[in-house]
Known about the structure:
Layout: E1 4-13, E2 18-23, E3 28-43, E4 46-55, E5 61-71, H1 77-84, H2 88-96, H3 98-101, E6 108-109, E7 114-122, E8 130-136, H4 145-153, H5 157-165, E9 169-171, H6 176-181, E10 189-193, H7 198-207
Parallel strand pairs: 1-8
Antiparallel strand pairs: 1-7, 2-3, 2-6, 3-4, 4-5, 8-10, 9-10
Helix pairs in contact: 4-5
Amino acid sequence: MSDTLCVRWTITANEYPQPLLYCRRCCSTRPYRTGGKVRVNANGKRIDAWLIYRCTSCDGTWKRPLLERLLVGSIEPEFLSRLMANDAELVAHFASDAEDLRRHAQKLKEVARIRVTKSVLSGDASLPQVLCIGFAVPHPVSLRLDRLLAEELGLSRSRIDRLAREGLLRVAGSNTARALRRSVRDGIQVKVGLSGRESTEVANRASGHMA
């Protein structure tokens, strides 16, 4: 029996980041929420496109630039077609991109609700000595890796930091201390050395067998 438990965590957001903008109707700064609609405007040979946001208090609108005065011939036809059709996957990609959103709004109300879908790739959760977590993040989320690990494994943030300092928690191919402070990204892999009484509980949580 393998002493390594390998799992995959798929991370999706139930809510997109919301820009905090000054609303003229409300006369104050308010969070704006996207309804998933794209507006495309063609002016001669050039295209503009915006993702539409609405004030959560008064329903006032804000247009987040996606394309600005681009020549039609410079845009891939399939991409333009998807944009004009409000393709759900494409809209989700833009709506989830907090880094790009910060170019237009300095402050964001970060995503508060995250869904973590867990599946076992190999091994079992009885008494593993090594836990290997692979992350699938279809769209960017603004959630620190150390916070996610602590919440999903049932450990404190200080425990996560201590495991990293002791070399028992490693982020493959990265500086572990830095990676833990950054948002979880697609394709990263975390390995955790397990021992003692917490081994089975942590493994069960990692594999989705314990809430």
